[in-house]
Structures are given as C-alpha cells and as structure tokens.
Amino acid sequence: MRLGALTTASGSSPSPSPSPSGARAASQVDLGLDDWSSRWFSAARACLVCLLLAAPLAFGAVAPWAWAAVIGLVVLALFCWAAGCVRVHTIAVAWTPLYVPALLFLVLAAGQLLSGHTADPIGTRDSILLYGAYVLLFGLATTLSATTQRHWSSLAKIVTGYTLLLSLFAILQFFASPGRIYWSVVPRWGGYIFGPYVNHNHYAGLMEMLVALTATFWLGRRRRDLWNWLAGFATLIALASVALSGSRAGVASVLVEMLLLGAVALLAQRRGQLDSPVPALALALLCATLIAAWLSPPETTERFRPAANAHDASFSDRVSMAADSLRIFRAHPFTGVGLGGFETAYPPFQSVADDKRVDHAHNDYAEALAETGTAGGILVFAALALFLVQARRNFRASLKPASDTIAWLRLGATIGCLGLLVHSYFDFNLHIPANAAWLTVCAALAVAPIRPLSFRTE
User: Fold this and answer.
1) Are 108 and 375 contacting, i.e. CB atoms less than 8 angstroms apart?
2) Phi, then psi, of 385 in degrees rounded to 5
3) Per residue in 256-287, pLDDT tens?
4) Contact 362/199 with Cβ under 8 angstroms?
5) What is the distance between the alpha carbons of residues 277 and 318, in angstroms, rounded to a whole number?
6) Could you read off the pLDDT of 316-366 as tens digits, one per residue?
7) Are residues 157 and 164 in contact, defined by beta-carbon separation less than 8 angstroms?
8) CA-CA distance, 385 to 380, in Å (whole number)?
9) Is the dihedral of CA 30, 78, 377, 447 positive or negative?
10) What is the model's pTM?
11) What ranges do the domains of the chain cover?
C-alpha cells in the first residue's frame, strides 16, 4: 500500500529523496478533486457538520450524554477519515505549528492525572477526554477544510442557514417563552436563558463566531444571488439576537469583531476588491441596533446600564473569582491543581460570600493558570502567539487583489476566534463543549493550508 502525509501550506514540493536499496521511492502528489470528494472524506465532513449543528441545540452539550456524543462523533469522523486515506492510498494530515502546543498541553494534563497532581482525578479524566476530542477535531477540520472552494462555499451556506434559523428561534423564544428552553424545558438550577442555552452569555459566545462567518461570506461573495441576501439577513438577525440576549461581554465582543471587519472591508473597497459597498454593512449594523432597541423590553435594556460600573455586583464577583484563581495559581505555580480540578480546589480560596458552588472562574485565562500552572500558561501563550501570526496573514490575504471567498471565510473564522477569545476574559465559553467545538473548527479554518500537498511513497 502506498503511504504518505499531507504537508505544508506553501504549495512547494521538494524533490523526491533517494531511498536505500530495496526501499520504495518517495514523492509528493496533489490529491485531486475526486479523491477529496470520495464518500469516506465526505462522510467525515458530514460527521463534523452534524457535531457543530447538534451540539448547541443540546443545551450547549454540557450534559454528560451530550459531550459524550460529541466525542463519539469525532471518533466516527476519525474512522471515516482513516477509511478515506486507505481508499486514496495516502495518509492525509495537514500540518500547522499549532499542533505542537496543543499536543504538549494534552501531555501535561495526562501527566497531572498519572502523577496524582490533581485536585479532582475524575474531573481531570473527563477534561482529558474532551480536550483530546478537540485536538482530533482540530486536526480533522484542518485537513478536510484544506481542499476546494466548493467545499468552503458549501460550509458557508450551511453556516448561513443555521445562523439565520438559530437566531430567529432565539428571538421568538425570548418573547414567547423567556423562562423555558424549547418552550418546555425549565433548567433545574435556573439561569438567564437565551436560545438553546441556559446562560445567555454562552449563546452570545456562539453567535460571535457564527456572525463573523456569515458577514465575511456576505462581503466576499462575488455572485449577487439568493445566498448573498441570506448571508446579509442572517448577519442582521444574529446581531439583533446578541443585543437582545443582554450579554454585555457578548455585545462588546461582537462590536470589536464588526469594527475589525469594517476596517478591512473599507480598505478592500478602496482598493476595488469588493463589489458590495461597505455602507451596506454599516446600514445592517445600524438596523440591527435599532431593531434590538425597539424590541427590547425594559428588563433587557436595564442590564446594560451598569455595564461600565465597576461596583456592579456581577462585575465585582467576576473580578473576585479571577483574583481567587490567581491565588490558586500562586499556591500551585508550576503545574496547577489539575485540568478540570478548579471546582474542587476553589472553596479554600473563595473570597466571594456566596452559598452557591463555583464551578468556573468566569475567566478562561485565569482558570487555565489555576489548573495548569506556569507550564500550561506558557503553552496557552505560545498557541495564542502562533494564532495571531496566522491571523495577521489572513488579514493581509483578504486585501490582496486575488482574494476570493476562501480568503474572506478564513478572515471570518479568524475574527470569530478573536471575538470569543476577548469574551473569554469575562466568561467561561471555552468550558461549554458546543462553543469549544466551534472555536476549534474556526481555528482550523483560519490556519488550514490553502493548497496542501500529499506525500506518497511508491
């Protein structure tokens, strides 16, 4: 059987290396469209799409059965990918430097569990299972997305339809049944419900990624057809739903995203690279704001008044929990209290007078330091640095004369990741499996090789 590995994004193909006597010669070949469209690779993509669409609908996949299903779908996609590799006689794995810190972080968590340096072995075990699934999801999404413009366009259409339907459902439920999910489910421990999520902040976190993809699909699409109008309408409705959700951090993150996108779109229009005028985007944002302001009941608009007040109870509690997390880090500076061990380790360090059990720090970065210490912090910082380097390239690529739908969608995925990373400073979206899975795929879309090559031995 012929074996190989998908390599760089540069598009350059090194010359075949000489092989010793009796060994097969090695060569690089480009997988054709028929190979990438084989039923096994298509099935793997279908598994990933089903995961992304279903996880938010299952209350964010926070229940054990839901995140177990997420892991199961990732494993099924892995099996289909492996069968596809056998079918085309090539091991297809797209390379990105982000694999290094991601895998090292997994090794660190496994070391915590095996050495007993964790406050909650069960929590660490479950976190390793989920995080391992995210690593596999990242690798599969990076490889399977680095194919053709047709595949990228199909994904953008799916995201557009999904964003439109989900945001319309969330708005309708907000006015028709604000205290119930799907008009029938009442959360056992209560919550600020919006859409299929118990917590409105987590709904906003999901929309931060979806709206960035729909907006760039709208702006970067050359053809003026039904999908162009749907992408614009989906962007408008999604922004209105975020405003209605009452998530202050979500609204701030979306505004940051739209400012970045607006600046890039303005530069692109000045260079004659956009057919659609930038004022259309500004008008859509204005309409979304006006619609939200017009439809919002008093209890929603009331939530925005103390947004800049440092003495607001919710804000002060989040600051206190983040400070407590840093105290845990100082007590366990090297490897932390174990991935997934925050809830168990937190009570002795808790400074907030509350009888409720705190399961997360409402700051993903502070919680990561508390759970993984300096070692984990270095890996997280390295991953962020590598991603920002790729983000800079994606911003530049969207301004090139030859920019196409792929370049704009990669920009949208980049902006979506940046928006959620900003939001993670005030919440724990990365601990919601559905949002973490979407972030993983968006990161994969952002760093995926544009034209990967396969390495095959004869």
Assistant:
1) yes
2) -65, -45
3) 888 888 788 777 777 666 665 554 566 566 56
4) no
5) 41
6) 888 889 999 999 999 999 999 999 999 999 999 988 766 677 888 889 999
7) no
8) 9
9) positive
10) 0.87
11) 27-304+324-457
